[in-house]
Amino acid sequence: MDTNFSRLDMLPPYVFAEVNALKLKLRQEGRDVIDFGMGNPDQDPPQHVTDKLIETASRGGVSRYSASQGIKGLRKAKARYYQRRYNVDLDPDSDIIVSLGSKEGFANLAMAITSPGDVFVIPNPTYPIHPYGFLIAGGSIRHIQCFTNGRFDPEHYMRTLHDIVHNSLPKPKAIVVNFPSNPTAQMCDLDFYTELVAFAKKNEIWLISDLAYSEVYYTDAKPRSILEVPGAKDVAIEFTSLSKTYSMAGWRIGFAVGNPTLVAALKKIKSYLDYGAFTPVQVAAVAALDSEEHHIETMRNTYIKRRATLVSALSNAGWDIEPPSSTMFAWSKIPDKFHNMGSFEFAKMLLNEAAVAVAPGAGFGQYGEGYVRIGLVENDARIRQAAKQIKRAIDL
């Protein structure tokens, strides 16, 4: 029996797998693990969204196959959202496709546009599907460090990008950007996107933007869409999701919007792979997108409060972390005394000694080493309790 599965051989051991196995082991032993490791929202969706799901699912005839592009009513709702939020006009038929979460959409777009040997420029550190989607599809990647001295530096980024593009054979096919960034929680401004779009057009390179955390921010400056740049739709596609904005992670509803050629490529490959999300979930997603702003503000205010609690509690525990400007994560250096341990061993130590789970930075790329990602996915009381347990562990 041939057990040579070449695509799997391309993938390194999943860094988070051992941490997840250790979490499970501790829980089976009866330990109460406080889990900051996964970006898994613990808040409930707005009640009217759940009510719409129940109402629609109770009707007859809604359990048949749906459409892989998504129902038209949902695509229209997404177009309304982009017009309302970004003043961007989108055609629901040619510029929008519904995905089973943004991760699935991203991976399938990678499969659709990648030929063997194609090169893609990927931020580092970043969400793992960004590099591995293209590696699984048979492409090659070039890493670009997306922060310098703990900060995103647009000028340094563009200089580095210029060098990568002009010293790569073949020329990169696409550039991936991820702001607000998972895991670093940093944002960019529209000036950066404007320069990037001009560069992509000049060099005839696609742009793929991951905007999953568009509504989770803590400053007066809202995250921007790359499609706000005039003419960006000529070269750019953007992925968004309802997972974080409306706490609908398990519902698996995301979107790809923008360049019609890339949307059509994703539509074609998805037509072979799925029949779309359950129709009542899509109908409920319309209710989410058409929600009043206060539903999003409620979500955001919860994370603002948890952010303040986390920063204060960990400071009291002897671990100073920088307050994130966006996302549901804090991205923090390992305490100095544990620097030589590395992020993976430090994460395992916190689990064993404090029963607190964090995500090791090395899991997001080589430039994530020395950091951990901490999710704001536990309530304030649990955050304070975790800080007490961490203090005992780091004082040992």
Spatial order of strands in the largest sheet: 2-8-7-6-5-3-4
Work out the number of β strands: 12
Classification by helices and strands: alpha/beta
Largest sheet: 7 strands, mixed
First and last CA, distance: 51 Å
Beta-strand portion reads 5-15%
Shape: globular
Give me the Rg, rounded. 21 Å
Q: Extract low-pLDDT stretches.
A: none
The run of helices and strands is HHEHHEHEHEHEHEEEHHHEHEEEH
Summed up, the helix count is 13
Overall residue-averaged pLDDT value: 94
The amount of helix comes to: 40-55%
Q: What does this protein structure show overall?
A:
- Helix content is 42%, strand content 13%.
- It has 396 residues and is an alpha/beta fold.
- The strands form three sheets. The chain has a seven-stranded mixed β-sheet with strand order 2-8-7-6-5-3-4, with helices on both faces.
- Helix 2 packs parallel to helix 12, helix 5 (102-113) crosses helix 9 and helix 11 (293-316) packs parallel to helix 13.
- The longest helix is centred in the C-terminal third of the chain and has 24 residues, at 293-316.
List its traits.
globular, 7-stranded mixed beta sheet, 396 residues, 12 strands
Layout of helices and strands, plus pairs?
Blueprint: H1 6-9, H2 15-28, E1 34-35, H3 47-57, H4 72-86, E2 96-99, H5 102-113, E3 119-124, H6 129-136, E4 140-145, H7 154-166, E5 174-178, H8 190-203, E6 206-210, E7 236-241, E8 254-258, H9 260-273, H10 279-289, H11 293-316, E9 329-333, H12 343-354, E10 356-357, E11 359-360, E12 371-375, H13 380-394
Parallel strand pairs: 1-10, 3-4, 3-5, 5-6, 6-7
Antiparallel strand pairs: 2-8, 7-8, 9-12, 11-12
